[in-house]
Amino acid sequence: MNQTSWTGVFPAVTTQLHQDQTLDLAASAQHWQAQIDVGVSGLIVCGSLGENQCLQPDEKRAVVKHAVEVAAGRVPVVTGVAEMSTQAATSYMQDCEKLGASGFMIMPPMVYKSDPRETQHWFRSLANATPLSWMLYNNPVGYHTDVTPEMFIELADISNLHAIKESSSNTRRITELRNLTGDRYRIFTGVDDLFLESAILGIDGWVCGSGIAFPKENQQLWDLAKAGRWEECRTLYRWSQPLMKLDTHIHFVQYIKLLCQETGLGHEWVREPRLPLAGTEREQVLQIIREALAKRPA
Amino acid sequence: MNQTSWTGVFPAVTTQLHQDQTLDLAASAQHWQAQIDVGVSGLIVCGSLGENQCLQPDEKRAVVKHAVEVAAGRVPVVTGVAEMSTQAATSYMQDCEKLGASGFMIMPPMVYKSDPRETQHWFRSLANATPLSWMLYNNPVGYHTDVTPEMFIELADISNLHAIKESSSNTRRITELRNLTGDRYRIFTGVDDLFLESAILGIDGWVCGSGIAFPKENQQLWDLAKAGRWEECRTLYRWSQPLMKLDTHIHFVQYIKLLCQETGLGHEWVREPRLPLAGTEREQVLQIIREALAKRPA
Amino acid sequence: MNQTSWTGVFPAVTTQLHQDQTLDLAASAQHWQAQIDVGVSGLIVCGSLGENQCLQPDEKRAVVKHAVEVAAGRVPVVTGVAEMSTQAATSYMQDCEKLGASGFMIMPPMVYKSDPRETQHWFRSLANATPLSWMLYNNPVGYHTDVTPEMFIELADISNLHAIKESSSNTRRITELRNLTGDRYRIFTGVDDLFLESAILGIDGWVCGSGIAFPKENQQLWDLAKAGRWEECRTLYRWSQPLMKLDTHIHFVQYIKLLCQETGLGHEWVREPRLPLAGTEREQVLQIIREALAKRPA
Amino acid sequence: MNQTSWTGVFPAVTTQLHQDQTLDLAASAQHWQAQIDVGVSGLIVCGSLGENQCLQPDEKRAVVKHAVEVAAGRVPVVTGVAEMSTQAATSYMQDCEKLGASGFMIMPPMVYKSDPRETQHWFRSLANATPLSWMLYNNPVGYHTDVTPEMFIELADISNLHAIKESSSNTRRITELRNLTGDRYRIFTGVDDLFLESAILGIDGWVCGSGIAFPKENQQLWDLAKAGRWEECRTLYRWSQPLMKLDTHIHFVQYIKLLCQETGLGHEWVREPRLPLAGTEREQVLQIIREALAKRPA
């Protein structure tokens, strides 16, 4: 597989757990397989949605190993890198290379809000850890560090920096990146409920969240946009919006795991410090989910 | 003219001033005429860009009177309503009705950050001031009061509330409004540099800012989107972006007036407390403008 | 009275209204008199708490005229200046000078978020409107324009700029101002529920809000702090805190007018776009008020 | 030593590093000893200032072990707990208990912004990990999770939850906590440049940052406040403010380490992703430091 041609839908998949919070690799495999079945172009494990930060070091590696086996070369397996220190990140990346991962989705340092100089140093240091391709995950809303379009000009000489996951929630960034960096980077959107807005601007891929629970429609959204069938795409997008919005809440992991449970693709169990939803909140989210699923297009 | 069918481009035009800050109605007329020449569908005077808040009560009325004369029935003349008290707003609206205005673009109370109950009361009170059609200008970023999609459901019984100027900078709102209120409202975007993102979602109109300085291309953007010629629209949109961004800065009035000066459609003079740009900032904005104009499509 | 020696408690008093929203000058006078009775050092009418922005131009002037008569030279009458344009502000100030006001509490331009150059120009322009003393009201939280300690160094040559009302809610500013400008300015705090924190840092005065409803205790807080009786001051401050907090909510006008009603010093009627409190919110605020009053020190 | 009586100054000390980023335990010991020499009441290692999040698991344990040896029972050694998962936190705490730590300063989960239910669950789970006393470090500005005074009422039954490090930068919280929870908790302030404001409100301790570089004056500030010598305290506080402010910047670790270097109590080396200061920023911080030190009281 040619690692320098990431494009299409790359779902950020969950790490399925048993109710006692231990890894459920079998259920995870089933969940991942459902994505591959509808034709996604890659799998991203151990992203935010994969609860990366709450897994133990050996668990993350077990997830990657298992995903490589399940994918079996059909799609690239990309893993999130979400560490607080350069050392922890580098060591994780090198282990994943040995386990057969195809590449990385690298986040800025966790917790520390690095300044632009430090941010660039961080990404350069990690880029050197392995020769594998990686996408830079820019999410200043969630992770408090921003990689601006101007900074992407400066980073352009990093040869294995292949793609950008643009999750700033500011779609202007896509046009700015195109105007400033042309086709240097594969641009993925990472914000489900801005998918159509992003697609019309010209993107290469989509790291989807909510759609892992309704992979067929999600893939359809992508295919319609790629085919320029914008009216149909808009209709489907309007249907999906209440579900897509589940991805942009602090509790997005709990919400999307519950959504997966409702569509038969997983369980709602999460790892602490997250707790499964309870009370009114769980009821309200279930109502949103069930209302949307009741109107699911044939 | 049928006031219940606002659609298309409604430029929010400037109030041209002499260097001594007095009204320059002749230059204003020339600026407004340039918009009508390219086929805009309405004129909005005394909006934020028209420096409403810094004009004296009699000056605002003079501007409306003059615009009605210039438009001469060719396009509706809509005036912004930006007052701090219910009394001032009501009295202004009634005067404008007598002056021949076609309708209003009503902002929430200035300064006071009304709660949802008060916000609804405000808009209902003002709706009763005249029978003219109006659009509700929602701009929580600029004016600190938010009218949510849920609130628009509640406001739906106001018969002369015809349109929404959605300027939250959150394009999700457009899909939410469509899902919740269908075609009840004419939805206008008010954010230039989110125009394409908004257009693909299905909108009825555009209250444009920057484009008043390059009205031909601005009208083209709208026409291409309406015709479903999205690729061409995107190309033109990418060109326009550095200019469109001038509309989403605190100094947007100064920036766009300077842009108008560069394209021969006005002067940079503004009313205090605004000051004309100076020093490095003026140089930088001029550079952005001149670089963009140098690449202006034939 | 020597205008260059403002110090002590300057209550920002309410403008009392009838239930039909018209001015109630008699009730206002009673409310103002109650402040003078306990020994305050000045009266501030037409501040934010005086609903300046929602009064008509002639009403504001009527309030000032009446306050000058009520004060009868016993304390200086200072009026807020809260206008959207330089012209409106200047004209208001000149009228108030003729009406016998002692000075002004000037806010930055309303609505427009001026940059530092424009902010300084605004204050210099208004300073020239009359020879009367004035205090600069700095409240970036409420009015979105910030006058930093560095800017106060630059403004120091304005001879009638006598005092600062520091309402940034950042008490560090007081120490910074002292370190940078020494005793050039009379420093007033304008944040009730940071009074003790501000007093220990060394201030000259207090523009109080909530305390206009319990003027005796409020004056006591000031007197205890001035006397260095910090332990007693802290005890009284802890008692007052639930009431002081009413001053730092968006609905502070409604809350404090309701509080005044409960202590017999006014009515809860407010001018639109504000509405009197209703429902649960009114009940909750009443409960806070009544619980605090039940524990009122003898 | 009685663990249930933490009071006084507890400096949050640095972890000294060699230029190659490896631990410098000897320099750390010297730095810690300087604190003990001036009479501090406790030592907090592996806090934010101790670069907890960027140390490897075994390094943190080495720091704690060494600090216990250096303290040698003279003052309690408290360690920060800053982990992304319950498992990592629990395991760290149990190891530290074995190493002889006296207690903990526990932060909310890193990265994940837990809701109030999850936040309480997190703190309860960690409280059960060992019988040692701990303080809850509340810093919503830095760590995005807030423990409100109301939540502290609910947490009051946790027997080894001994103290609160209040770092919300909102001093009102101290009065609210006193009004709502009386003397249930030892209240420490964690915000250097709000020390005097906090002290006047009645606090039990101070987790200081900047002051680790000038421990004598820092201890004096505390002693003067405790003695009610407020005027002298204010004078010293004004002197210290430019240095205290170094603690409330994103680069506070770099700034304070540089400050320590200037006063002979450490080195400026930091662990990646942090980088040592460079260029203009380093010059400006050095200038602030040197100007303040030049005026150091005799």
Q: How would you characterize this protein structure?
A:
- Four copies of one chain form a homotetramer.
- The first copy, chain A, has 298 residues and is an alpha/beta fold.
- Chain A has twelve helices and eight strands.
- An eight-stranded parallel beta sheet of chain A has the order 1-8-7-6-5-4-3-2.
- In chain A, α1 (25-37) packs across α2 (57-71), α2 runs parallel beside α3 (86-99) and α9 packs antiparallel against α10 (230-244).
- The longest helix of chain A is centred in the C-terminal third of the chain and has 16 residues, at 279-294.
- The first copy, chain A, starts with 7 loop residues before the first strand and ends with a helix.
- The mean pLDDT of chain A is 97.
- At the A-D interface, α3 and α4 of A face α3 and α4 of D.
In short:
The structure is a homotetramer of 298-residue chains. Chain A is of the alpha/beta class and 298 residues long. Chain A contains 12 helices and 8 strands.
Strand arrangement, largest sheet of chain A? 1-8-7-6-5-4-3-2
Number of helices of chain A: 12
Order of helices and strands of chain A: EHEHEHEHEHHEHEHEHHHH
Name the assembly state: homotetramer
Strand segment tally of chain A = 8
How many strands, which pairing sense, and closed or not: the largest β-sheet of chain A?
8 strands, parallel
Helix content of chain A: 40-55%
- The rough form of chain A would be described as globular
Structural class of chain A: alpha/beta
| Rg over CA atoms of chain A | 18 Å
Strand content range of chain A: 5-15%
Q: Detail the poorly predicted runs of chain A.
A: none
Task: Write down the overall mean pLDDT of chain A.
Answer: 97
**Main interface: chain pair and counts:** A-D, 30 and 30 residues
Termini Cα gap of chain A = 34 Å
